């Protein structure tokens, strides 16, 4: 059981997470500012000096829009993305903050900067995530006649960026190991797009299930690589209940009530997400045996999102529209793949804080905040200093 000090710390962090303006203002200050409102108890939770993140659009804070012309033209590069907190697009695929932003602030660190912003500060860590990225290299998909965007920066590319970053900030491997020993590393969420490209290009569930061992192998290999570089505390998130996401609910909508679970989500797709998550957790258990001195934690995005669905009304969400996109148009889920959020004439709901889903693919700032709360309560007591 967590100590009373730890539980008090989690409560204090929750208070901070409820105030997005505080998070943005703290990002403008030094991470060791004496004006922080965190209590001494909160400081006692693993005083991380840096945070590193790999992933896709769930945690991209601006890499895609800097990656080339295609990224610069992406929806995340224009309003209404970013409108709630930043008042401008930042490359985040939401109306404001992401889970990784809330987690950085809970650890008393500034918001992470994207790796592809070469002038940004990196002493407190770097975000390597790129929207649309896959765990597997693009060659895997070409061999299966699947199209992936030319902007795909798979996990192998992000690991190369990580290596390049370390070569710039460290003089030798020992110095890098010392730096990473005081860091928290998120490897993911990644892998969701590997399946998305299959599902939305007509591959069968049976075929896509065969991708899972290779996706998980790519993720665990990445964990090995960051551990070999010196990381000792790693969080590896699982997949969302994809059957609850408007893009899936729209594409695979059916009149058969047996296809839906108690969350009114597509049961078969959620079962697939659990299959991936179970496979990943088994692989992480083996990694813990391989690396007994490392703390390797599973980030349960599935249960964190599920908790929001079940508590939607008490969290202030519009339960009647819990499955509808805030920024979108058309159909039962306010989503049309031909008129995505950011397209001309596509409206935004009056109060995004009352919605769980932002654009039919990603969540709102409010939903990410509550997911971050759930994750912090689950993870912080397990992070050993």
UniProtKB/TrEMBL annotation:
Keywords carried by this UniProt record: Glycoprotein, Hydrolase, Signal
SUPFAM superfamilies: SGNH hydrolase
Pfam family, any one: Lipase_GDSL
InterPro entries membership: GDSL, SGNH_hydro_sf, SGNH_plant_lipase-like
UniProt KW Signal keyword: yes
GO molecular function: hydrolase activity, acting on ester bonds
Endpoints of the signal sequence: 1-27
Family: Belongs to the 'GDSL' lipolytic enzyme family.
Protein's name in the database: SGNH hydrolase-type esterase domain-containing protein
Organism: Aquilegia coerulea (Rocky mountain columbine)
């Amino acid at each position: 059981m967590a100590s009373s000090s730890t539980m008090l710390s989690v409560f204090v962090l929750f208070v901070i997470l409820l105030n997005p303006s505080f998070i943005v203002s703290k990002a403008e200050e030094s991470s060791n500012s004496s004006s922080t409102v965190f209590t001494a108890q909160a400081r006692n939770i693993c005083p991380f000096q840096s945070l590193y993140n790999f992933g896709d659009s769930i945690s991209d804070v601006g890499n895609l829009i800097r990656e080339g012309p295609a990224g610069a033209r992406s929806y995340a590069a224009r309003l209404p993305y970013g409108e709630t907190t930043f008042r401008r697009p930042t490359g985040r695929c939401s109306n404001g903050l992401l889970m990784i932003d809330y987690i950085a602030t809970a650890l008393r660190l500034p918001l992470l900067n994207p790796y592809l912003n070469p002038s940004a500060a990196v002493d407190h860590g770097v975000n390597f995530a790129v929207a649309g990225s896959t765990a597997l290299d693009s060659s895997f998909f070409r061999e299966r006649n699947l199209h992936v965007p030319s902007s795909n920066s798979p996990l192998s590319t992000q690991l190369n960026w990580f290596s390049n970053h370390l070569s710039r900030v460290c003089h030798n491997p020992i110095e890098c190991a010392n730096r990473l020993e005081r860091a928290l590393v998120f490897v993911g969420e990644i892998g969701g797009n590997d399946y998305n490209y299959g599902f939305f290009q007509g591959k069968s569930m049976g075929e896509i299930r065969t991708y899972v061992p290779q996706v998980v192998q790519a993720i665990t290999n990445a964990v090995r690589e960051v551990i070999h570089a010196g990381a000792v505390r790693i969080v590896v998130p699982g997949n969302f209940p994809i059957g609850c996401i408007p893009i899936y609910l729209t594409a695979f909508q059916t009149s058969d009530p047996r296809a839906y679970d108690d969350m009114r989500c597509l049961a078969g797709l959620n079962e697939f997400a659990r299959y991936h998550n179970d496979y990943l957790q088994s692989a992480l258990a083996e990694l813990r045996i391989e690396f007994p001195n490392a703390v390797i934690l599973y980030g349960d995005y599935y249960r964190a999102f599920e908790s929001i669905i079940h508590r939607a009304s008490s969290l202030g969400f519009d339960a009647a529209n819990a499955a509808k996109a805030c920024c979108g148009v058309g159909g039962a889920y306010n989503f049309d793949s031909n008129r995505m959020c950011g397209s001309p004439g596509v409206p935004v709901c009056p109060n995004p804080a009352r919605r769980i889903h932002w654009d039919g693919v990603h969540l709102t700032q409010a939903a990410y905040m509550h997911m971050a709360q759930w994750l912090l309560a689950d993870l912080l007591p397990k992070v050993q200093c």
